[in-house]
Amino acid sequence: MASRTALASAGCSSCRSAVLRLFAADFASPAPLSSRLAPELVLARRNRLGPTIARPYSTPARRPESSADTTGTASPLPKDVETVPSNDQHEDVSQQSSPGTPADSVPWYLQVEPPRHIATLEPPPLPPVPADGPPILSSILEYAAEELGLDELALLDLRELDPAPALGTNLFMLFGTARSERHLHVSAGRFVRWLRAKHRVHADADGLLGPNERKTKLRRKARKAKLLQIMGTDETDDGIRTGWICVNLGTIGRSGPEKANLGEDGRLTGFGTTQEGTSIVFQIMTEARRAEMNLEALWLSSLEKSRALSKPAETPALDATVQSSRAADALQTPARPTLSDGQVRKISPQQTASFSTVRANKFSASLLGRNMASPPSRVDAESASSDAEEKSRVLGLLHNFLRYGPPEEIAKATGGRPGDNAGETDFTRLYDGTTAELSPAQSWACRLTFHAKCVDINPNLAAHKAISQKLLQEMQLHGISATREQYLELLGAICRARYSDAAPSRTDLALSLLQTMHQRGQEVLANDVVVSMLDGAFSQSDATSDSPLVKYLWDLLAQTKQPCLNEKSLIHLLKASVEVPDEDYAMLWNVWELSPRHLQARSYEMYLEFFRTAMQTCDANLCGQVIRRCLLDMPHERPAVALQGRLSAALRECINVADPAAEQIVARLPPGAINDIKLTRGREFVIMLLQLNAAEQQAAL
């Protein structure tokens, strides 16, 4: 209650009511502030609080100091009736009242964070489809990305591959990555069914397991794992998780019947028929399998190599007459190298040409009419200096002479030197001038044959090592496509050369060549490779039958269970094994007994070469052993080998080495002395000659 004196001091009833309302407020339903105050107090409050109300994006007006004096006569307001601005107004006022303050001075609860926009996830773009490609490619890519959920889609256009791959002509190859093994099989199965239902394409999916088949295999694997766990064995390869499915759509857009390949002359060429249309293959793999196989790099390298081989050489334009004459001349020299860089033609020695037109050219007539028994001359070098095509033609003739010419003429023409000028001849000058103007890929085959012949003639030259290394590096760097015969020719040249610092360098070169052969798909563990290395090991000056390399290579033939050597390899080893300086010729007899070990019969030619090889040694003891062994084995061969013709003459020469006086004794004996034991006692080879003469006389009748 207010005191009585306070109520009495207010004479006016309205004043008393105002004073009472200050102390006695209605807490249940408070009245508005404007109704509880006197009119003059309300006006004073509005004058004092009005300018302090802030509006967004505005600057509050500063009240002059004189306004305080004018409103000072009004009664002061209590603290609980003063209005407090809202939070938004506080933020605006705090930000606008100090525009020059840095953002760090603003408390964290007053800092306004920028709006956060969620980045939209856009799918990766699909690989571009060639404009002239089949329309189904776009549909396949969209379905693989949207419906199957395959990642890292890629498209390879392999239509420029020549020759066409085994997957088909005009090949398009697609690649996709699955997230797991289960996703791989599910995606491939859906893709095959979609092709069959949507495009009527019955595709073959290699490596695809159906849902029921996969579940069955997994159940069997689980049961097998329990058994293996009990038995204590571990098997990692289950045959289920391949990580790779190849979907082959076949040839799309095939129209019309198949056509045969016809050459420019109208005759059939090549094998098979020409297929029209486009082949499509989809390679679906898991991420780990795709990184391991790296098929994209493999096919791209094949495509780049095909483009490089098919790129024509830059030659001046020729008229139609010259072009037609050169096309006719191409049939005359089948061993002529091609003009494109990096291309080496595979030549068959049995290939011949006929019904060709010879150009009226002094150079062509002189070269094409020459027998390969004699090398090209200096006139050919002057004629070959005109253009690159003539140099290629001369190089082909030089190569033919080195391959098929007589050994005596080759030794005389080459001079036995690969690098120095000590044995300079017309042939070597023509050879050097021709190979210097051509690219390494064009002259590589001829230089290899020249180097191999020089090694055979004189294996002790120090330059052989550098030339072998250069030929090997050129083949690796230029990507020269060598034949297996050329690989073996280079391997034989490396192994037969006698280096002064020899063994490590020869081994490194041979291993590098074998690694290159393995990388290019050539079989390394084969008889011809071992024979080439054995030939080189036999030719070394320190070679014996107990040498580590000879024993290792010889055991390799037996332990790897290789098939029996063919007749050509056996004859080659027979000739090479004679060079091994053994007292009893153990290596020669080991080679001769290879065929019976494999239950193979020896032929007439093998007996002939065996007699000649023994005769060339001029060893009477060896010739006697060969004669005794062969005369016993020849009737038991299947078929039996008849002692006639060249074999009879070779036997006579062997008898002359085994017993030089036998021929003279036979000439002095009277007719019918073969039955006189006293005249032929102790003369084994005399009896053989008498029997041989009697057999020849009977055959002549």
TrEMBL record:
Subcellular location: Mitochondrion inner membrane
InterPro entries: Atp25, ATP25_mRNA_stabil_dom, NT_sf
GO biological process: mitochondrial gene expression; mRNA stabilization
Pfam families: mRNA_stabil
Domain of life from the UniProt record: Eukaryota
Keywords for this protein: Membrane, Mitochondrion, Mitochondrion inner membrane, Transit peptide
Chief location category: mitochondrion
Region (Disordered): 52-108
An annotated GO cellular component: mitochondrial inner membrane
Topology versus the membrane: Peripheral membrane protein
The ATP25 mRNA stabilisation domain, residue ranges: 434-656
Family as reported in the entry's similarity comment: Belongs to the ATP25 family.
Known role: Probable mitochondrial mRNA stabilization factor.
Name of the featured protein: ATPase synthesis protein 25
